[in-house]
Amino acid sequence: MSENSCILVKEIDCDNVVLVEEIKLAVIVQKDDEVVIVACEQGPAGLPGILQVNTGPVAPAATQVADSVAITTFRSVKWLVTLKDSVGGLFKFYEVITIHNDTTTKHSVYGLIGDTISVVNDVDILAGFIRLNITNNSANSIDISVLRIVTTV
Known about the structure:
Blueprint: E1 18-22, E2 27-31, E3 34-39, E4 50-58, E5 63-70, E6 76-85, E7 91-100, E8 105-114, E9 119-126, E10 129-136, E11 142-151
Antiparallel strand pairs: 1-2, 2-3, 4-11, 5-10, 6-7, 6-11, 7-8, 9-10
């Protein structure tokens, strides 16, 4: 493959595929004469990667630990958060990034887009895990979907 070429990412039927190469963020397989990326998940043995976590429903005024990551394994985390109002069909998307020094965290929430769903995001460390806590301040229950991207140092 040349420097200027790229691989088309698309969904395929996973029957009779042959593993071509496994890298940190994706699995590349070959089916017939076609090579495609078929998955993006956390790598084997806790390697950095991507993992989707779904929680819900979260009742009004309740706080949900949307995701947690061992501080001994990962130094920084980026979460892509999607919220869905369980009654009104409203959606909200945003990103949360965080870094820690083994005792405290610093985080930022940005890229908010979508409908008005009132939540409070907090990141803390408890029992060796960095946690993304989401408090539902809206009138209806919400469903939370989080895509986690982690890196080591």
